[in-house]
Each structure stands twice: as structure tokens, then as C-alpha cells.
TrEMBL record:
<keyword id="KW-0812">Transmembrane</keyword>
<keyword id="KW-0472">Membrane</keyword>
<feature type="transmembrane region" description="Helical">
    <location>
        <begin position="6"/>
        <end position="26"/>
    </location>
</feature>
<protein>
    <submittedName>
        <fullName>Uncharacterized protein</fullName>
    </submittedName>
</protein>
<keyword id="KW-1133">Transmembrane helix</keyword>
<feature type="transmembrane region" description="Helical">
    <location>
        <begin position="73"/>
        <end position="95"/>
    </location>
</feature>
<feature type="transmembrane region" description="Helical">
    <location>
        <begin position="33"/>
        <end position="53"/>
    </location>
</feature>
Length: 111
């Protein structure tokens, strides 16, 4: 009977871990799409403002500014930011898990 309980607990833990992973991945994809759309909207607005107000014509902006406003660079930076935030989230979850394990070990050694 004990082996059956252990097997059930292991199956439940694996299912919960898979569900948490799926939820984290779905949230990560939604946040990435939202950030990319937001960055592209900001790039379009800033480019339009730069060409319409500051140059008042088809004159090209300086090379450095056009490089900074390029959608590919904005996409790269937003993806980099997203993966850094995801890494931070995973690190926080790991720290929380370690703290929980330490408190469990401390509670079992006291009794």
C-alpha cells in the first residue's frame, strides 16, 4: 500500500510540474508578443515623429539614430529583455524552492 501511495504522489508531482511549465511557457509567449507589438508601435510612432517634425521632409535621419530605431534591433532588445526576465523568474522560483526545502529539513530535524 505504501508503494502505491508513493507512486500516486510521484505522478501528481509530475503532472503539476508539467502544468506549471505549460502555464509559464504560455505566459512567456503572451508577454513576448505583447512586448513586440508595443515596441513596434513605439518605433513606428518615433520614426514618424522624427521624420515629420524634426526634418520636415524626406531628409534621412542620422545613421546612429536610424540604427537605434531599426525594428530588428528593437526586436532583439525586447527578446533579450524577455529572456532576462524569464531567467530572473526561474531564479526566484529556485530560491523559493530551496528555502522551502531548508525549512522542511529544519522542521524534521527539530522533532
Amino acid at each position: 500500500m505504501t508503494d502505491c501511495k508513493v507512486a500516486v504522489v510521484v505522478v501528481v508531482v509530475v503532472v503539476v510540474a508539467v502544468l506549471v511549465l505549460v502555464v509559464v511557457l504560455v505566459v512567456a509567449v503572451v508577454v513576448t508578443v505583447f512586448v513586440l507589438v508595443l515596441v513596434l508601435v513605439v518605433v513606428v510612432i518615433v520614426r514618424g515623429f522624427w521624420q515629420a517634425v524634426l526634418f520636415r521632409g524626406p531628409k534621412a535621419p542620422p545613421m546612429l539614430l536610424s540604427l537605434l530605431l531599426s525594428p530588428s534591433l528593437m526586436l532583439f532588445l525586447s527578446l533579450l529583455l524577455f529572456f532576462l526576465l524569464l531567467l530572473l523568474l526561474l531564479l526566484l522560483l529556485l530560491c523559493r524552492h530551496i528555502a522551502r526545502e531548508r525549512s522542511t529539513i529544519a522542521a524534521t530535524t527539530k522533532t
